[in-house]
Amino acid sequence: MVCLGLAIWLTHGAEEVLESVSQGNGIALWDRPVLTWAESVRTPTLNGVIAWYSNTGGPLWQPIVSVIVVAFLCWRWRDATPFVLTAVAAGGALAITYFGKRAVGRVRPPLAEAIPPYEYSPSFPSGHTLNATVIAGILCYLILRHTKPYGWGVRLFWVAFFGLYALTMGLTRVYLGHHWLTDVFAGWLLGFAWVAVVIALHRIWRAVRHREEGRPIEEERAAPALRPGPASG
Fold it and tell me: Which of 149 and 116 is assigned the larger pLDDT?
C-alpha cells in the first residue's frame, strides 16, 4: 500500500538524519548555525509568545485540547473512530519518543543557549515535534474523510492548517534552544511515518470489514456531517 511504502521511506529518512548526527556531517552541520541564528533574533516579547505556543504542544495542554477536539468529532459524527485512531496514534507516538530518546541518548543544546524552563531528557527525536505531528496528521486524516463533499478548497485548507501547526511546533523547539534542528527533522519524519502506518491499518480494517459484510468498498458512502445516523468507521 502507498501509506506503508511512505512510512518505510520516511523512517529511512529519519535513519539518515540519525546517521548524519552520529557522524557529524550532512544535515547535522546545520544544527549549530541555525541555533546561533535563533539566538540572534530573540526578544523578550517573542520569547514569551513562542514559549506559550510551544507549551500548547507539550504533555499538559496538547492532551487536553486533543481530547476536547476528538470528543467533539465523535459526538458530531456519532462515530467512535476519531477516539480509537487518535488513541492508537498518540500511544504509538509516546512509545516512539520514549524508546527513541533512550536508544540515541543525545544531549540537548547547552542550557546557556536555551530559554527556561529547561528540559533535561535526551534530545533525539524532539518529542514535542513528533507528538504534534502525529496528532495533527491523524486529525487531518479524520477531517478529510468527512469533508469530501465540500470540495478541494476546504480540504486543502485543513491540510495547510494542520501542516502549519506541525511545522511551527517543531521550529519553536529550535528557537527556544530545547532541541537541535536535526532532532526536529527526526520528529517530523517519524511522526508522519507513524501516521501513515495508522492510516494504512485503518484502511485495511475497513476493507476487511466491508468484505465480511458483503458491501462494496468506497472512500465514503455519504458525508456523515450532512446526514443523521452513525457514520462509517
Answer: 116
